[in-house]
Amino acid sequence: MVRRGFMLPQPSIVFLLLLVTQAPVLAFPSPREPEHIAQTLGVKVPPPPPGPPVFTGTKLVYDDAHPWMPARPGDMRGPCPGLNTLAAHGYLPRNGIASPSQIITAVQEGFNMNGQAARVATYIGHILEGNLLTDLLSIGGKTRLTGPDPPGASVAGLSNHGTFEGDSSMTRGDNFFGNHIAFNKDLFDQFVEFSNKYGGGFYNLTVAAELRAQRIQQSIATNPNFKFLGLRQLTAYGESVLPINLFVDGRKTGAEKGQLDMDTALSFFRDFRFPKGFFRAAEPGGAQGIQDVFAARPFQPGRNVDGVNTFVVDHSLGSLANFCGIYTQLVNTTVRAAYPDPKGVLRRNLNLNLDYLYTMVGSTNCPQVFPYGRD
């Protein structure tokens, strides 16, 4: 078991998915018999996360080996345009189902994402919404392709509202309004408007700060169920800078670096497609600039408590200023609520995944949490 300290690395909304063969739909024999499940369904011991790639410079990623293809009926797509793009180009399985190791490899290969950030986000998403027995995660909604659910778990995929996915997205509506997954043209038009007003037609860190503040205020004023707590505060600010660092062609330098044009943005956000001839980032990246965006227009975690415009600050699940609190509450509150009393191989796999998460966060100012013991 890992026992080092904790601090989230460059936070990121990370991309997630990959390969799987269809599993039969079977009922579990009993919540008390995970060992029997392991014998009959081929439950996996989750391997350690993969290391960094050999080459970490820029290169062409829309190549002959990775053609774009539209999603087929039954393919999973979710709220993250980066993951959807990787699936559409075959860096992830085109059905949208993957193991954590496959996801980490894909986001590093396709976007040159910082390995540490990719691993942290991947393991958070997998622990909250993946199948911990089969080691598979849907980048979209719930599907039989991840295998039968572990006892008591929902395994709802990354589209499930309120765990990894949350309110005030830049190009997706809040769950309260009925569709938090599909591309929202009105919100993208606002994205373009702010890019024109504050960025000279490009999306950059200045635009990111203004648009993030705008989306929060819109949700407060229109969504009575708006929540911006702990992990969601982190991922929302990470979401604001990710396109700047990963959706800009890696050959751009000087004044063009960190400037996302609107045609390229539309290709990712709406079409899930690398622009023709697109080169990935020139060096590993992810959420560089997140503190700049937050400092320009800071907003504390919280929620509407009694309808619209009733926002109250709430630090109970941690905050950008308290990464340790996010980690501790994520494990002690959210994970424990999902898995109050895991047994056998489920408990083992939970502990392994929690260890992998903690190993990747890498600092010394937060003790590891052991919700299910140390073995």
TrEMBL record:
Gene3D superfamilies: Chloroperoxidase-like. Belongs to the chloroperoxidase family. Transmembrane segments: none annotated. InterPro entries: Chloroperoxidase, Chloroperoxidase-like_sf. Its cofactor is heme b. This is Aromatic peroxygenase. Residues 64-295 form the Heme haloperoxidase family profile domain. GO terms for molecular function: metal ion binding; peroxidase activity. Residues 1-27 form the signal peptide.
